[in-house]
Amino acid sequence: MDKKPCNSSQDPEVRKGPWTMEEDLILINYIANHGEGVWNSLAKAAGLKRTGKSCRLRWLNYLRPDVRRGNITPEEQLLIMELHEKWGNRWSKIAKHLPGRTDNEIKNFWRTRIQKHIKQVDHNQQNSQQQKSSSSDHHQTNTSQASNSTMVEPMENYSPTSYQATNLEPFPTQFPTINDHNSSCCTNDHNTNNYWSMEDIWSMQLLNGD
User: Where is the composition biased (Low complexity) (predicted)?
Assistant: First the structure.
């Protein structure tokens, strides 16, 4: 038996890449006359060789009349940060609280501006802490070195030779001759000044350093 050839119908070629101005006008006019509806059906009915997802994103993010693009205000930025801290990366839910803003724009703003700023602040804080720690360690090292290098100079050693009794007369090499062998060295005679007593000898010895 001869087999009949199977004619498989192929879907029309789907366009990708940037939208043209002509495609934008077709989508805007169709939605203005028929509403949004089901996006896959809308793409075919409007005669656009685009997927339903591509038409939806193009309309919501760029073509709808109330869309707001760029110039995110400080108030919107604070709201994005608060909602992101509460819900995380749920961009569509966050976008519902910012009229006219798209989830795609909010996501891009978060990643390119806020998240980058947060990382930079954290990096600066880490560098600041490392610098403070390094400065503290350097100060402690300098203090330790200064304390080790500080030495108390010893007092000059006292040398007996450094003291010289220059004003004292030298000890006599010979004792005066005592003529009277019977007289005492300790008599209180008027001639006792010519003789040396034991106290005089001890005093002279102390003065001469003997």
Answer: 123-134
Question: Using CA atoms, how far apart are residues 67 and 95, in angstroms rounded to an integer?
Answer: 11
Cα separation of 39 and 171, whole Å?
Answer: 134
The CATH number of the structural domain formed by 15-65 is 1.10.10.60
Nearest 5°: phi and psi at 13? -60, 130
pTM value? 0.47
CATH of domain 70-145: 1.10.10.60
pLDDT tens digits for range 180-190:
444 444 444 44
What is the Cα–Cα distance from 142 to 37, expressed in whole angstroms? 77
Tell me the CA distances in angstroms from 135 to 18, 22, 86, 143, 147, one per residue in order. Answer: 55, 65, 39, 12, 18
d(CA 113, CA 84): 14
Look at residue 187 in the predicted model and tell me its pLDDT. Answer: 45
